[in-house]
Design a protein that fits this description.
The complex is a heterodimer. Helix content of chain A is about 50%, strand content about 15%. By secondary structure, chain A is of the alpha/beta class. A five-stranded parallel beta sheet of chain A has the order 2-1-3-4-5, with helices on both faces. The radius of gyration of chain A is 15 Å and the shape is globular. By secondary structure, chain B is an alpha+beta fold. In chain B, the strands form two sheets. In chain B, strands 2-4-5-7-6 form a five-stranded mixed beta sheet. In chain B, strands 1-3 form a two-stranded antiparallel sheet. The longest helix of chain B is centred in the first third of the chain and has 100 residues, at about 5-105. Chain B is elongated. The chains are: A alpha/beta, B alpha+beta.
């Protein structure tokens, strides 16, 4: 459900298409979120580490971003590799994939992350991005699947991944 | 003393024995021959069987190879479809985003329209390139061949790209005597335009030089386009003329489709020409195109030097 008056979130975005990155920023800032834009995979990981260092020095111990939005195909490092590195630093980091790949490619690529992911498939309406970002039920649903995945020590099944891709494609 | 009667009998017996032995010998010989024949036949049989097995093995190995090749081609095709649809969806995302933001008054209308137009043009370019690639791959790109002067064409392309130069970029030509080639003018324009635009795109400051050099003894003309940009990244140089290879690996987003050079190579190859690229020792990159020249006074029916094969196989 879309939150009428969402709590402000801190969001890190990696998107190599400048137009699209700026569109994300404008629409999310309009909803009072704080947005940090990066243009490729390396820059995104660097921004994540830098923010982590700052947060640690502020000794509040909290992870710096409520959400990381990743493009799939990017120069230098693709979205799946960025996700792997970020999850190594913080296994609980909420990540949203925004990808222009077909579902088949997505499902097979995300499998190696060994967890269910929220994916929003391009092209989508800006309102779909905002509502997916602000939907508070999504993290809970994801956690349910991921508990199962962790318990079975198996990769998430194609069905489980497909559900995630399908559910959040376009409202 | 034995009587002559007795001698006769023993002689008779001896003859009989000899005859018997001869018979046995013949029988043995016959059996031996049979045995030898049998062995020969068996050897031949085994050899045939072995040859057959070898042939079967060879055939099955070849089948496996063909199968692997088909699988490889299928994977390449899947990958192409996957990346191609990605490249088509991306500008649509851009168009939708600008429209949504403009509708909600979150962006300046003028900026939004410009964004929509740019993304729509990009979408058109991607679609056109994908169509060219699939036609080149299936050998269905048709060429409209006619003779024309190469210098005239180069100068007209140079004049058409000159307006995009900034004050820090220069574009020079150094052309040999005018020579005719027989080719598809529009497609050669596409190739030279693409290479020149790339050279300008990657040379933020500096010189782009277009030269021709006729190789008359080979009935060929060499066109080279040299820039003083950053050169081609060594990682992508070996596969520069492949599909979805973009020189934008430095993360410098230049909106290339990554298909341009594949198309250039397809067109030049279909004209019996060659296209190569390398980094210059003094910096920058050079693209070299060699094309057959037009032989307007062929001896007899010999048309060597002009384009004969107009379709890529």
């Amino acid at each position: 459900m879309r939150n009428i008056d969402p709590e402000s979130m801190k969001i890190l975005i990696a998107e190599d298409e400048q137009d699209i990155a700026i569109q994300y920023k404008i629409s999310l800032e309009n909803r009072k979120h704080h947005v940090v834009l990066t243009m490729d995979g390396d820059e995104c990981i660097k921004a994540y580490r830098d923010a982590l260092k700052e947060a640690k020095s502020a000794t509040d111990g909290k992870f710096p971003f409520d959400l990381v939005v990743l493009d799939h195909r990017m120069p230098k490092k693709d979205g799946v590799d960025v996700a792997k590195e970020i999850l190594k630093i913080n296994p609980n980091q909420r990540i949203l994939f925004a990808s222009a790949y077909s579902r088949e490619t997505l499902v097979s690529d995300l499998k190696e992350l060994n967890r269910a992911m929220v994916v929003i498939q391009k092209p989508f309406r800006i309102s779909a991005l905002v509502s997916t970002v602000e939907d508070e039920e999504i993290p809970a649903e994801l956690e349910k699947i991921n508990v199962k995945v962790r318990a079975s020590k198996d990769l998430p099944s194609d069905d489980e991944l497909s559900v995630m891709v399908k559910t959040f494609k376009n409202p | 003393m034995a009587s002559s009667e007795e001698v006769k009998t023993s002689e008779e017996e001896l003859r009989m024995k000899i005859l018997e032995l001869q018979k046995t010998n013949e029988e043995l010989q016959r059996r031996l021959n049979d045995q030898l024949l049998f062995e020969q036949m068996m050897t031949l049989h085994y050899k045939k069987e072995k040859d057959l097995a070898k042939q079967l093995q060879e055939t099955s190995r070849k089948l496996e190879e063909v199968n692997e090749e088909l699988k490889r081609k299928d994977r390449i095709k899947d990958e192409f479809v996957s990346i191609a649809s990605h490249e088509l969806r991306t500008p649509v995302q851009s168009i939708l985003g600008f429209a949504d933001l403009a509708k909600e008054n979150l962006i300046d209308q003028h900026e939004a329209w410009n964004g929509v137009i740019e993304a729509a043009l990009r979408l058109q370019k991607v679609a056109k390139d994908i169509l060219d690639v699939s036609r080149i791959q299936s050998g269905q790109l048709s060429y409209n061949i006619s003779p024309f002067g190469i210098n005239e064409l180069i100068l007209s392309i140079v004049n058409s790209v000159r307006p995009v130069l900034n004050s820090k970029q220069s574009l020079e030509t150094n052309l040999d005597e005018e020579i005719a080639i027989e080719a598809d003018k529009a497609r050669i324009t596409q190739v030279l335009g693409n290479i020149m635009s790339n050279a300008i795109k990657f040379t933020k400051e500096g010189k782009i030089k277009v030269q021709t050099h006729s190789l008359l003894e080979q009935n060929k003309i060499e066109i080279s386009i040299t820039d003083s940009g950053p050169g081609i990244h060594p990682d992508i140089l070996p596969n520069l003329f492949g599909k979805f290879v973009s020189r934008d690996v430095q993360g410098d987003n230049q909106h290339g489709t990554g298909l341009g050079l594949f198309i250039c190579k397809g067109i030049i190859t279909a004209h019996n020409g060659q296209i190569t690229a390398y980094n210059n020792d003094e910096g920058g990159a050079t693209f070299k195109i060699v094309l057959p020249i037009y032989n307007s006074t062929p001896e007899g029916d010999d048309k060597s030097g002009s384009v004969q094969v107009i379709r890529s196989s």
